[in-house]
Amino acid sequence: MSPSSSEPRLSHRARKRFGQNFLRDPGVISRIVRAIAPRPGQRLVEIGPGQGALTEPLVDAAGGVLEVVELDRDLIPGLRVQFFNYPHFVIHEGDALSLDFAALRGEGEPLRVVGNLPYNISTPLIFHLLTARESIADMHFMLQKEVVDRLAATPGSADWGRLSIMTQYHCRVDALFVVPPEAFVPRPKVDSAIVRLVPHAELPSPARDEALFADVVREAFGQRRKTLRNNLKGRLSGEALEALGIDPSRRPQTLSVAELVTIANHLAGETP
């Protein structure tokens, strides 16, 4: 996966180290923009605009106001030329993993974040954005389909794990549609998909200590084939799990977000 982009307007070879595959299918681009439904007055931020395929319809729909984050310095001159007549088009040069999205929002409207994310940064970037969730209205990402499957997974499925749980703790997750390899240049070897993440206005199952909750999830899924009794034996006993109404012989992938929050809240000293 890569920064999104159109059929090249300036010569640029996709860089493997940036995971670049440039989006060029106009039908797919139009469908993505319809799913995002940007409107003037909203604070849109595109991560990895690449050569601007998605950027152009986004900035037009947003009334000429758009901020983009681009790591590849070779692409930035082309973006400046392509969007020179948009005075409110802002380029942030650098790595989105290092950008303070809460500071970027400031006192303004919550951000709407979009992007075609490279596989190698998709998970850490989503976790980074979740730390700024109070400053974000929603997120629309193109990711490898296997990552979207994990984000939207349900308890008991093979894809249910730490990424699913931590994302769904903070957000509603909607897998929207699949994007085939032929929509890109060069063609990736896997399918991609569009996902929508909407931070919860109120957490359905709030953890008393979110850092502790994250630790519990990490430890519970440390060895997926082992039982909760084994994976959490350093935290609490099988008897304690039973007292919480959770069978200690269950595998971690069968637990819901709410059940894992129950365990973390018990460890934090909250009466279940």
The gist of it:
The chain is an alpha/beta fold and 272 residues long. The protein has eleven helices and nine strands.
Could you explain the architecture of this structure?
- Mean pLDDT is 90; it is low at 1-19.
- Helix 5 packs parallel to helix 7.
- The chain folds into two domains: 16-199, Rossmann fold (3-Layer(aba) Sandwich); 210-267, Helicase, Ruva Protein, domain 3.
- Helix 5 (119-130) links the parallel strand 5 (111-116) and strand 6.
- It is of the alpha/beta class.
- The protein has helices spanning 26-36, 55-61, 76-82, 101-105, 119-130, 145-151, 162-170, 210-220, 228-231, 238-243, 257-267; strands spanning 22-23, 43-47, 65-70, 88-93, 111-116, 136-144, 171-179, 184-185, 192-199.
- It has a seven-stranded mixed sheet, with helices on both faces. A two-stranded antiparallel ribbon has the order 1-8.
Q: How would you describe this structure in keywords?
A:
single chain; about 270 residues; alpha/beta; Rossmann fold; Helicase, Ruva Protein, domain 3; 2 domains; seven-stranded mixed sheet; two-stranded antiparallel sheet; about 20% strand; disordered N terminus
